[in-house]
Write a structure and sequence with these properties.
single chain; 139 residues; alpha/beta; Rossmann fold; five-stranded parallel beta sheet; 6 helices; 5 strands; 40% helix
């Protein structure tokens, strides 16, 4: 007796060297995302100024960024990025923000992830973004 074939979704991106920068001032969120996004190469920074430096220094395939950060906020960080880097941003927010922030999020190509988010949704959104924009150019 033969079993019927099943259709499975496309396999997840398995590239362990996929580079993800997480920018969130809540260390618990950074820890959670690091575990969730294994085996990818995840770096966590807790403020916008450090994130701006890291974005300028290194290529990132995805930049998961909280909207509200100490110092340089998410919208300011986005404005400092190059056009290619801006395509790689995926904003996260708890939803409590100003009309200006709401307008900013509406202007971004990628809709934000609202906290708390489903881990499968996050991984799916990261994978969709990488498939849409490709890997960041290296060196």
């Amino acid at each position: 007796m033969q079993s019927s074939a099943t259709i499975s979704p496309s396999p997840p991106i398995q590239a362990p060297n996929l580079r993800v920068l997480v920018v969130d001032d809540e260390q618990s969120v950074g820890f959670f995302l690091t575990r969730l996004l294994r085996p990818w190469d995840v770096t966590v920074v807790v403020d916008g100024l450090t994130a701006a430096e890291r974005i300028a220094e290194e290529p990132w395939d995805v930049i998961l960024c909280d909207l509200t950060l100490p110092g340089v906020g998410g919208a300011e960080l986005f404005a400092l990025a190059t056009a290619d880097q801006r395509r790689r941003f995926l904003f996260m927010t708890g939803g409590a923000y100003t009309p200006e922030a709401e307008q900013f999020l509406a202007s971004c190509d990628e809709p934000p992830l609202y906290k708390p988010f489903d881990p499968r949704e996050l991984r799916g959104r990261v994978e969709q973004l990488v498939k849409a924009v490709g890997r960041a150019p290296r060196g």
